[in-house]
């Protein structure tokens, strides 16, 4: 594990809150992105990401410092995301997701570049479309697909995050790929 | 076109990068003669490429401050206040 993260964790355990702020700064984009990809809604993603950090803070003693911190943090994040998705009212979900997507893609595009506005529009639509396809995936395939293809993590790391054998992760990725293909094949 | 499922599993093993040399040879030979499996593989590749074309997103402004404001008060702080 990298030494900066190690040092920050040691400081946090000594009661140094500023060290925790630094740790959040270091990992916030990754955690937020996983949360957003899982739930497809900006406000909910922010809420989930914050809760994930708070849980990490209160459970830091349980973290095994010989392991990779991001793996542990992603596990908390996906667990919080899955809890929220299960509690969600089914009829709210689609509308919220669409509303949330417009916002995030708009904001992230504004921050991003000096591209021509037309290019930005095309890209925003593509991003919304991608997220809407991810939102259609059953939760158990979604986690595996997000970690593999959007976070680019190894199967071993995904298996640690999802707390299941590599063989099971592979099966879920296979089924997730098939689910995506079936929706997209006629385009 | 007749739908063929004889190589579905091997196609996924191949996409995972887990196919042995023999498995790859078997798959390539089958693809030569099977338009259904060729199309299946092509569609899967397209789906993966599509998902991977998504942009990275960043945490919103003020995120860290938001987390810090919600931190539970430590016992140490409580003692100091007394």
From TrEMBL, chain A:
GO terms for biological process: DNA-templated transcription initiation; response to stress. NCBIfam families: PRK09641.1, sigma70-ECF, SigW_bacill. GO terms for cellular component: DNA-directed RNA polymerase complex. One of its GO terms (molecular function) is sigma factor activity. The keyword Transcription applies. It comes from Shouchella clausii (strain KSM-K16) (Alkalihalobacillus clausii). The keyword ATP-binding does not apply. The gene is sigW. It comes from the Bacteria. CDD domains: Sigma70_r4. The lineage of its organism: Bacteria, Bacillati, Bacillota, Bacilli, Bacillales. Belongs to the sigma-70 factor family. ECF subfamily. This is RNA polymerase sigma factor.
């Amino acid at each position: 594990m990298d030494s900066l993260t190690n040092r920050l964790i040691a400081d946090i355990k000594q009661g140094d809150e500023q060290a925790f702020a630094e740790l959040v700064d270091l990992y916030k984009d990754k955690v937020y992105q996983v949360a957003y990809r899982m739930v497809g809604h900006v406000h909910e993603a922010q809420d989930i990401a914050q809760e994930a950090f708070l849980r990490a803070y209160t459970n830091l003693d349980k973290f095994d410092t010989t392991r990779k911190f991001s793996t542990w943090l992603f596990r908390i994040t996906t667990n919080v995301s899955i809890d929220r998705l299960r509690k969600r009212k089914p009829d709210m979900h689609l509308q919220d997701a669409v509303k949330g997507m417009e916002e995030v893609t708009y904001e992230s595009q504004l921050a991003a570049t000096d591209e021509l506005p037309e290019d930005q529009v095309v890209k925003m639509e593509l991003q919304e479309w991608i997220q809407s396809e991810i939102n259609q995936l059953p939760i158990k395939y979604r986690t595996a697909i997000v970690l593999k293809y959007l976070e680019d993590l190894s199967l071993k790391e995904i298996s640690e995050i999802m707390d299941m054998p590599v063989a099971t992760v592979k099966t879920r990725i296979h089924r997730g790929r098939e689910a995506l293909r079936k929706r997209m094949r006629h385009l | 076109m007749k739908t063929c499922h004889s190589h579905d599993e091997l196609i996924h093993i191949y996409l995972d990068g887990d196919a042995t040399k023999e498995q790859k040879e078997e798959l390539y030979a089958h693809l030569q003669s099977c338009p259904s499996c060729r199309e299946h593989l092509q569609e899967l590749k397209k789906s993966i490429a599509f998902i991977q074309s998504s942009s990275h997103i960043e945490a919103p402004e003020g995120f860290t401050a938001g987390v810090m404001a919600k931190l539970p008060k430590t016992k140490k702080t409580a003692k100091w206040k007394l």
